[in-house]
Amino acid sequence: MTILHLALATDWQAAQHTGDYRVSTLGRTLDDEGFIHCSRDTAQLHGVHDAFYTAVTEPLLVLEIDPTGLDVRIENGFPHLYGPLPLTAVTATHPYQPPPGHTST
């Protein structure tokens, strides 16, 4: 199982220097929220993008996360990671791309 997180490329780059990732969602940290918002699949990730990230002009990345050994809880249908995201749990990163023919609302 893999979970996903939508990240600003600059936030992910900063995490490379600190050793872990602590951004919950756009403009909110782990300390602000108490957990890191994630998505269970790409459809849910696209919904998160449409709800919160359509006005973002800087590059976005999708972080693919192996939740093994992490405190992940499903709440309101979304995986929430309680605690910082270790860089080693991120198995892949790639630029966020909306699905073909997708238009944001």
Automatic annotation (TrEMBL):
Name of this protein: Glutathione S-transferase
The keyword Manganese is annotated on this UniProt entry: no
Entry keyword Glycosyltransferase: no
EC numbers on record: 2.5.1.18
Organism domain of life: Bacteria
Alphabetized UniProt keyword annotations: Transferase
GO molecular function terms attached to this record: glutathione transferase activity
One of the Pfam families matching this protein, by short name: DUF952
